[in-house]
Write a structure and sequence with these properties.
The complex is a heterodimer of chains A (214) and B (323). Chain A has 214 residues and is mainly alpha-helical. Chain A has eight helices and no strands. Chain B has 323 residues and is mainly alpha-helical. Classes of the chains: A mainly alpha (214), B mainly alpha (323).
Chain lengths: 214, 323
């Protein structure tokens, strides 16, 4: 009789521990999937942004042909963004593109005809909108990463994570330091650029600006 | 600004969703039960006046019971699916597209991305009093509404902060509970009102033939019916309280988390609460849904006791402390 009770207790114990393990494992998988899904949200916006770049460069070229350095920087950043494999790479490329676009728009300030062109203004507005959306998507992604990484690195889930090889995910870092100074970066052949207002791209929106400083 | 990265916050929100779903479920069940009781008592009163005595005639009792259960279940199911449409109809607005209201639409779009929620439908209420609310049964069937006054009187950051507050109601499943409460309260008030009139009318006509039917049992039934009628608005009020106050603080803080701009929400609340105009379409049943009390009845102690919103000064103070 007593052996049956002991066996039952042992079995119950194993079952409970097993269920807890399954729960933790599933929680980690869910967390990882959430991070992936959140990154897809950023990726959509990054692609939208990259797809507008050639059009923008063509438009600006029509008015300001000799600003070659600026165009190259933009094109290079775009190519980097399209090649980016990990969230970290994508973030870095995106920050480069942000900087390059900023100097492009700063350059554009010197061409009133370009400023007046309907096509250019539309592109500028759309890029501004995308930039805001990237900032929001980044916020959502990072909060998911934080949630997942915290679970991954704390007891008791850390044991499960170790056993099944769960890896912490990368944050999508925004380059706040670059923001104010970028327009100077690509300006060796554009002496007038530093004097121009730094950030016409997000003239419409402050939340990304505040978001980026968070 | 590192508050966006407080790890407990998200866990709290997941807890919140579960709690909200449970509360809504119990509310619906409770309301259905209450409706059944109500219809039963109404039917008892009606049949009593019609000359039947439910206490003596078991066939009548069975019929009343069956009728009440069927009606109450139907009301319960209808509540779940039709309450959003009802609220939208009562509050009176229209859906807008991205090209009609680019700024508002873009703000909601961004906030949907920032919170990982599907894009809700955006409604505008043509009223110059600034206010906003969210409704729907889940994030997949959600609506956020802003008044024309809100769009006109708030700057972009403030508008974004207000819509972020509304989006947190969506994400937390507050919308489901708030919408159902609005319709439940509206229905109870309507029925109680009708029944009270009916009883007065019935009592008047009955005084002529006092000897018909009746007795002590009839009186008891009548008293029960009247008590139910009196109790129902109180139940409605209690239900509403249970819901709103803490909910608004929570939506304020998770909204601030989303827009990353608690100061803008504080400014917006200041503007909304200081605006002298009352919102035409708002009433007691829907008042708790808005970001700030649309009825403009601040002041008296009684009002503050029965108010559905926490004191706006307190909310502003908390938000200012966050920034």
């Amino acid at each position: 009789m007593s052996t049956i009770i002991i066996v039952a207790i042992i079995v119950a114990f194993i079952v409970i521990v097993g269920l807890i393990f399954v729960g933790m494992y599933n929680g980690l998988v869910r967390g990882r999937n959430r991070v992936k899904e959140a990154f897809a949200g950023i990726d959509v916006q990054l692609r939208r942004r990259a797809s507008l770049v050639p059009n923008l460069v063509e438009t600006v070229k029509g008015y300001a042909e000799h600003e070659r350095g600026t165009f190259e920087a933009v094109t290079r950043a775009r190519a980097m963004l399209e090649r980016a494999g990990t969230p970290g790479d994508a973030a870095q490329a995106n920050n480069m593109l942000t900087g390059a676009l900023r100097s492009l728009f700063a350059v554009a300030e010197n061409y009133p005809q370009l400023q007046a062109a309907e096509n250019f203004r539309q592109l500028q507005a759309e890029l501004g909108d995308i930039e805001e959306k990237i900032a929001f998507a980044r916020q959502f992604y990072n909060s998911n990463v934080l949630d997942y990484n915290n679970r991954l690195q704390t007891v008791p889930t850390v044991f499960i994570a170790g056993m099944f090889g769960f890896q912490p995910e990368e944050f999508f870092e925004a380059d706040e330091e670059g923001r104010a100074e970028v327009s100077v970066d690509f300006s060796p052949d554009v002496p007038a650029a530093p004097a121009a207002p730094a950030a016409p791209v997000d003239s419409g929106g402050d939340p990304p600006a505040t978001g980026a400083s968070g | 600004m590192s508050m966006a990265e407080v790890p407990h916050e998200r866990v709290l929100i997941y807890d919140r969703i579960g709690a909200n779903k449970r509360t809504t479920f119990f509310l619906l069940v409770g309301f259905t039960f209450f409706t059944a009781l109500f219809f039963a008592s109404a039917a008892v009163v009606i049949s009593y006046y019609a000359g039947y005595d439910p206490a003596a005639d078991s066939a009548v009792t069975v019929r009343i019971a069956a009728f009440s259960v069927v009606v109450a279940t139907a009301v319960g199911i209808l509540m779940y699916y039709a309450s959003t449409a009802t609220v939208l109809m009562v509050t009176g607005g229209h859906e807008v597209t991205g090209s009609e209201e680019p700024e508002l639409y873009r703000i909601v779009e961004n906030l949907a991305i920032g919170s990982g929620l599907p894009m809700p439908k955006v409604w505008v209420i043509e009223d110059s009093a600034p206010n906003a609310f969210a409704t729907g049964r889940d994030p997949e069937h959600a609506y956020v509404a802003a008044t024309r006054g809100l769009i006109d009187k708030l700057d972009k950051n403030e508008l974004e902060a207000v819509m972020a507050h509304e989006m947190s109601h969506v994400g937390n499943y507050d919308i489901r509970i708030m919408t159902i409460v609005a319709v439940a309260v509206g229905l109870i008030a309507l029925i109680a009102d009708l029944m009270l009139r009916f009883t007065w009318f019935g009592a008047g006509s009955r005084s002529g033939n006092k000897d018909k039917g009746g007795g002590a049992l009839g009186m008891i039934i009548l008293v029960v019916a009247i008590v139910l009628m009196i109790v129902s608005p109180i139940v409605a009020t209690v239900m509403k309280f249970a819901l709103s106050r803490q909910r608004e603080y929570l939506a304020d803080s998770s909204g601030a988390l989303l827009s990353r701009n608690p100061g803008a929400l504080a400014d917006a609340l200041e503007k909304i609460s200081q605006d002298p105009e009352p919102l035409e379409a708002a009433n007691k049943a829907t008042a708790h849904m808005y970001i700030e009390n649309p009825l403009k009845e601040h002041g008296s102690a009684l009002n503050s006791m029965f108010s559905t919103h926490p004191p706006v000064e307190e909310r502003i103070k908390i938000l200012r402390a966050m920034g």
